[in-house]
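Batch manifest, entry 17 of 40.
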Amino acid sequence: MRSAPACIAALALLATAAASHAAAQSPRIVQPGAPGEPSREITAAEATDTSGVRHRAADVHFMQGMIGHHAQAVEMVALVATRTANEDLRRLALRIEVSQKDEMQMMRDWLTRRGEPLPDPHAHHMAHWQMPGMLTSEQMAQLAAARGAEFDRLFLAGMIQHHEGALTMVKELFATPGGGQEPDLFDFASDVEADQAMEIARMGAMLKEFGK
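Output type: structure tokens
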């Protein structure tokens, strides 16, 4: 039977061997240096720490544009109350109105806290062609003139187009080098992508029902 000191020594050797094996198995993470500076090896904790990530010009452009994008959606849902009696559409419109107004305020706060300018509240009326999915003035006029089932179909088709444009904006943000990595913005853009994709599926199903 081994003595206590011998057991302790054996355990220490095992622990050292396990630590050495783990270190050998862990991949090396090398962070490139700034121009003129050498690269350096960093820990996994450092590699996953986002506290020092700062927003980029692409982030500001995304937030400013998305405020205008949301503003048109709010104008669209404002038409619902006087143009349809469809309760499912009314509930959908209320969900979109509440969520997009809340998100618009969040985006304004995000820009303000970072000292970035807020967009003109009416800029989206003139810039619908600059952002994916935005309805043209002609489409908005057609929607406003419609009633009943025609309105329902135009609204759903238009909002699907609008939401798909928002997904394109998120995709373009994440495709920009360094874009969308600031933690708050990353969470928001990811939520937009998930929520609007879900609403597109729901509206597509409703549109098929109206077509029967």
